[in-house]
Amino acid sequence: MGRDDPRISGEDRLIAEYFRPIALAPGAMDLRDDAAFFTPPDGHDLVLTKDALVAGVHFFPDDPPRMIAQKALRVNLSDLAAKGAVPAGFLLALALPKPVDTAWLAAFSAGLQADAEEFACPLLGGDTVTTAGPITISITALGTLPRGTMVHREGAQAGDHIFVSGTIGDAALGLRLPRGGAAATQWGIDLAAADYLVGRYLVPHPRVGLTKAIRDYASSAMDVSDGLAGDLAKLCLASGVSADVDVTRIPLSTAAAAAVENNPDTLVTALTGGDDYEIVCTVAEDRRAAFIAAAQAASVDVVEIGRIVVGDAPPRFTRDGKVFDTGAGSFSHF
Amino acid sequence: MGRDDPRISGEDRLIAEYFRPIALAPGAMDLRDDAAFFTPPDGHDLVLTKDALVAGVHFFPDDPPRMIAQKALRVNLSDLAAKGAVPAGFLLALALPKPVDTAWLAAFSAGLQADAEEFACPLLGGDTVTTAGPITISITALGTLPRGTMVHREGAQAGDHIFVSGTIGDAALGLRLPRGGAAATQWGIDLAAADYLVGRYLVPHPRVGLTKAIRDYASSAMDVSDGLAGDLAKLCLASGVSADVDVTRIPLSTAAAAAVENNPDTLVTALTGGDDYEIVCTVAEDRRAAFIAAAQAASVDVVEIGRIVVGDAPPRFTRDGKVFDTGAGSFSHF
């Protein structure tokens, strides 16, 4: 057996070289079978999420392949965290143009491996195919949580406090940043700040540390992937409520704050632009202190930005007492 | 709320119109959340499979969209059946060119819905995105079985009987059939036979009825998706054995038998061409009668085609006592 064994196809060799090292779960069976198995802990539910990323739509074809892989996995881990689920494993479908760019694939699989280890989320299985189109990646991630404890979009009640994790708008600003020296001259931010924003676009940091705090204390939650304004609107719609948000309390990074200070128009971008992969959640009054303490214990920054209110209007964003118009709201592919 | 509500994006409308009717599992939450949940029965394992299909590679762009959808789901159901798992649900990632062809999408989702119902395998969630390339479909299917009972590729033992379900080679012949009147003049088969072969290529029939018989009696199993010769070679490689196969016992449909009769060269195509979505499995001598009885009770045809033997050579195909060369063996994308 070996490289010249006719029973081992090019596809099998590619899987063996680039993906077997990531397939460390027993149920992956070294990717040598048609399917994987997974043994869920008794008394637990699975949480399942699936995101597709297409070159030219969700990432630039010349983005570093390591980072593309990390983003592809992390957007799913972000969904799991927002639902209160602990990552358990993932499946990967990868459509690649021919001939396969092995340097690209090596860096891609190295990024996946690093994240599979960091987040204790091993590769379980998948499929690798060719395409005449752009690189297309689809990941299905599995998480587990005690039965019946998934946190939903619906569940927010009037009076609940609205929290967001981390900082909002970095990725959207990083995506739209004037390139080269223009970031300094047009936006008035230095190179380090510009790099920070671009980095936040390229590689999200899913708030997995917040998972248990959300499950224990949040009345509703979702990850912020399509812009805070639009995603909070979706959460309110699902819950049958409205919201009042104080724009001045929305957490901005130092870099984003500098960009907004020098270019006030970019604040709308920050609130609607997408790719934050932070978490927005609602917490009842009597759980607020415990939620904050749990987030602190988990070393995840959370900031209260407003309250849930009765009504079915879209969330109202105000700044210094005046309505702040966030425009159309949310990113949509169609 | 409604079509003009700015909080409901085009993407959400598309999901509501075409996919919500298929999302009948409670854990799908009407596709209104970021993730789905699934409550596995205690004491059971999950079996997970994921296949990607790309227009121009796995199907022709002008194949009927209803059938494309059915094939995309059924190839996964075929994997589950071969592992002994009962379907529980699926997730769908769909990358579509813009503007969305709503007639195509309506027929595609109708096909998915029909199969989700027929196979009791509801849509749990997924993602719908745009692409500059061909339509790309990735389905992750979940099945369940009693803990530790998944049937693997490895496990075949010397002396085991080799069975295949249904008939072999129809899809490969259907794919390569001379179109129009040439099927009759070149291959000597009539229109009904030609239609049958093409139909077998377009819409596979996963042998879900055989699931329990495989779990109860097979020592190893896999679905035949890349050609019987190559897939049996993979099973033997995984099990550390070889095989003797009698080509004259391999079950051919009436249509395939006519094509082979008139064009002996097409027999190699039938044995290596792929897309059968039948099951090849091995059964120990003392379970052979029970397996045959269980398959009969499930109304699935199974035929014994040979025996597992000691060795690490590729399976040996013989016809009337002479070695029959199947060539390179198996379809590979790379």
UniProtKB/TrEMBL annotation, chains A, B:
Chemical reaction(s) catalysed: thiamine phosphate + ATP = thiamine diphosphate + ADP
Annotated binding of Mg(2+) 2, by residue: 51, 79
Binding-site residues, Mg(2+) 5: 226
Amino-acid positions noted as binding substrate in the UniProt annotation, renumbered to this chain: 58, 275, 331
Molecular function GO labels: ATP binding; magnesium ion binding; thiamine-phosphate kinase activity
Residue ranges occupied by any PurM-like N-terminal domain in the UniProt entry: 33-144
Class of enzymatic activity (EC top level): transferase
Domain PurM-like C-terminal: 157-311
A Pfam cross-reference name: AIRS
Keywords recorded for this protein, A-Z: ATP-binding, Kinase, Magnesium, Metal-binding, Nucleotide-binding, Thiamine biosynthesis, Transferase
CDD domains linked: ThiL (cd02194)
GO biological process: thiamine biosynthetic process; thiamine diphosphate biosynthetic process
Binding site for Mg(2+) 3: 34, 79, 223
Pathway field: Cofactor biosynthesis; thiamine diphosphate biosynthesis; thiamine diphosphate from thiamine phosphate: step 1/1
EC number: 2.7.4.16
Top-level taxonomic group: Bacteria
Binding residue positions for ATP: 126-127, 153, 225
InterPro entries found in the cross-reference section: PurM-like_C_dom, PurM-like_C_sf, PurM-like_N, PurM-like_N_sf, ThiL-like
Residue numbers binding Mg(2+) 1: 51, 127
HAMAP family: TMP_kinase
Function according to Swiss-Prot or TrEMBL: Catalyzes the ATP-dependent phosphorylation of thiamine-monophosphate (TMP) to form thiamine-pyrophosphate (TPP), the active form of vitamin B1.
Additional information: Reaction mechanism of ThiL seems to utilize a direct, inline transfer of the gamma-phosphate of ATP to TMP rather than a phosphorylated enzyme intermediate.
Similarity section: Belongs to the thiamine-monophosphate kinase family.
Full protein name: Thiamine-monophosphate kinase
